[in-house]
Each structure stands twice: as C-alpha cells, then as structure tokens.
Design brief:
The chain starts with 25 loop residues before the first helix and ends in a 15-residue tail after the last helix. The protein is built from six helices and no strands. The longest helix is centred in the N-terminal third of the chain and has 45 residues, at 26-70. It has one domain. The protein is elongated, with a radius of gyration of 28 Å. The relative contact order is 0.10. It is mostly helical and 241 residues long.
C-alpha cells in the first residue's frame, strides 16, 4: 500500500507555465493568421445558419397560419393577427442573431480586404498597423458593429417585409370578402362600417384594430426607409445578407 511518504513530487511538475508563444517569423505569423481566419469564418457561417433557421421558421409559420385562416369561413381573422405577432417575434430574434453575424463578418472582411487582397492584388498598399490594431481592439473589447434598428431594417428588406405583406393581403381578403366570413354571403364589403364590423375582435372595435395594423405597417416601412443605406462595404448590398 502506498503511503504519502512514498509519493515524491518532481520539481519540474510544480514549475509555473511559461509565457505564451507568439509568432517569431513570417511563417509562424501566416500560420497563425490562417488558423484565426478559418475560425472567424466558421463562427460567421454558424450565425449565418441560425439566420436561415429563423427565416425558415417564419415562412413555415406564415404558411400554416394562412392555411388555417383561409381554408374555412369559420376561421377567425384573429389567426392572421396572431401570425403577425409571431412573425414579429421571429424578426426580433433574427435581428439579434444578425448583429452577432455582422460582428464576425466584419472581422472576416477586415482580414480579406487588408491581407489577402494584397496577395492577389499588390497595388493596394495599406498600412499594416492600422487594420491589425483595429482587429486587436475589436478582439480585446468586442462590440456590435450595427444597431438593432439597422439590423431589423436589413432583415425586413431582405425577407420579412414580404411575409408581412402576404399576411396583410390575407387579412384584407378575410375582412373584406363576404364569402370568407362565417355568414357565407356572396360579394365583397362595400362600406367601412362593414369592414370595421368584420375586423372587430370581441369588445375591441374594428376601427381600433384597423388603426393598429396600419400604424404597425407604417412603422415597419419607416424603419426600412430610415435605414435604407449606410456607408462602407458592409452596408446593405447585393452580395450581403
């Protein structure tokens, strides 16, 4: 049986770890930079995949709500209002995910623009200390590179505004077409009083529901117009999400 006296501790096992090893030549620097670049691309693609998942959830939710609401006259138009709230919740989630995605995409483009571009096109001579210091400060103190409103405007412009417009069209059809109402009368609604009557939900009058919907869509379009374009290569463009 081994006792504590029989256990010997080697002096080197108690030694403190040495300082971190940094690149000492160009080969080691290129190797470290290439591995770091791959890591940033991997994180960027991970968040890009999360964006696609949220968008797929939104499209699936819209399709399900449309099939439930428009398949039968007995289905209440409140299902479409619930769908609008659900899609806005998914838009809020995707806005947060897009902000994280934009952080990593900014780092990737910083390396590509200032290092790899000089390999393929040496005419662009950029001060190396500038972009490396910028990247170092971003790693030392990570910050979002885009506001929540800007991120929401981009996701609206790319995908979500079309989903909201489809829901709005379905709501208008549901509330203005009599054949889609529970009464089953043929024809369309020809007066605002009929529209407000069809748009009411319980004790909430139809004019209030209509005003809230118009205000909500007006706010969405205001966000898109307010943040239509931004300066820089990471602004909204053809090849950017």
């Amino acid at each position: 049986m081994i006792s504590e006296k029989d256990i010997t501790i080697r002096p080197d096992s108690m030694a403190k770890p040495g300082p971190p090893i940094f690149p000492t030549n160009s080969v080691e620097f290129v190797n470290a930079l290439s591995h770091y670049y791959r890591a940033e691309v991997s994180r960027m693609m991970s968040w890009r995949d999360r964006l696609d998942r949220t968008t797929n959830w939104a499209i699936t939710g819209v399709g399900a709500m449309l099939s439930v609401s428009l398949s039968s006259p007995q289905s209440h138009h409140g299902v479409l209002l619930f769908a609008m709230v659900l899609i806005f919740l998914l838009l809020h989630i995707e806005t947060r995910r897009y902000r994280f995605f934009h952080v990593y995409r900014s780092r990737v483009r910083l390396i590509e623009r200032n290092y790899y571009v000089r390999i393929f096109s040496p005419r662009d001579m950029i001060d190396i200390t500038h972009w490396m210091n910028q990247l170092g400060e971003d790693l030392r103190l990570p910050r979002f590179t885009i506001t929540s409103t800007q991120a929401m405007a981009r996701r609206l412009r790319r995908n979500y505004i079309f989903l909201f417009l489809i829901l709005l069209l379905a709501w208008l059809l549901k509330t203005t077409t009599s054949v889609l109402q529970a009464s089953g009368n043929a024809g369309i609604v020809r007066s605002t009083s009929e529209l407000f009557k069809n748009a009411s939900i319980g004790y909430v009058p139809g004019w209030l529901i209509t005003t809230m919907i118009l205000s909500f869509y007006g706010w969405l379009f205001y966000i898109m117009l307010r943040h239509r374009e931004a300066a820089g290569e990471l602004a909204y463009g053809e090849v950017h999400v």
